[in-house]
TrEMBL record:
Taxonomic superkingdom: Eukaryota
SUPFAM superfamilies per record: S-adenosyl-L-methionine-dependent methyltransferases
Xref: InterPro entries: SAM-dependent_MTases_sf (IPR029063)
Name of the protein this chain belongs to: Methyltransferase domain-containing protein
Amino acid sequence: MFATAATKGALKILSPAPSSLHYTTPMNPPLIDLLINVNIDLEDFQSFAQARGRDFAGVFVIVELDKLDSTVDGVYEEVGRVEVKEAKVDVDANIAKILPGKRSLRCSLVTAAGDVYDSTVVDFEVKDREGTGRGSNVDINSWNSLGVEVGSEGYEDYFSQVYRYKVWSDRGKLGSDSGPGSNLEVTNGVRRAILDVLDTNTVSRIVDVPCGDMTWMVELLPVLKDRGIRYLGIDVVSHLVEEHTAAYTNGEFKGTAEFRRLDLTKEELPDIFPGDLIICRHLMFHLPMHDNLQIIEKLGGSAANRLMLTTYLRADENERDFVLAMGHKVNLFRPPYCIKDPSRLVFDEQEDMYTGIWDLDGTTLLGESCQGNGQR
């Protein structure tokens, strides 16, 4: 890929800039290499070096790509650098995190002391030639919590794209495609808590929303089968539901497990009964406040006996703008939620993250202390 833009001073990026970059990718996108040709006016540059005198030591061409987790324009992360040895410099940058959508890169001439001699920004669009599936045209980075406009298919398109590009697992390097928080080693606490609830002999079914890629929950399916407890996995991503249905409903766990596609923010829950334990883990980290409020009311007001939700205890990010896929630290005990105290809190094996267990009686879980704050 080559890029160019009008530049000032001595820094020049050669070769035509594409208005759109196309690449072909399977479900596991390959690494993408970025090669930028940079031409430097050495006479001008040497004058600059002479003016610096003894303070001058080395100059680098640095390439940066816009950060996926930032809702603010102009925030970049370095993806490649090379020391200037001659007038023409090739920078080979690894931009494996690039995703379909509108992107920009910044190329800068920087001294070893960190002073920027010159810089230019190139805007371009990335498209996937094979992107014909659900959500293939979604720009993941453009959906932020304060400005997101959910389309007709809404979150199904968005989170289908997140799973397609394995955003949460960094292309599979971090384990579960639902994110590192779904790896077995960090779910010991929540799995023990679920088993403790099952030991009360009051649970006839687990309703797991969202079920994600089932990395950790599949460990509990044999226990549920042995105890005659049914499992309903719900997710907004169709291909996950289809894969799980094929994998778990016709074999060993036939009669125990079933799966449904559902957008919890817009659609009504399936029939919920006394004896149901609803588990909603890590979902609200990726949704705006107004959706989270509806979810709490919907789940908390259901006929289920118990509800498990994840929350942070000390975080204060409820009103922070964030890219949905990158998430934020939801604290259910702070406005606009002010949720009632749970019967139990379990450490979720990540800093400041806990799973709360609420006994439900059909009334709201949202606390009165938040009423009138203008956000409900």
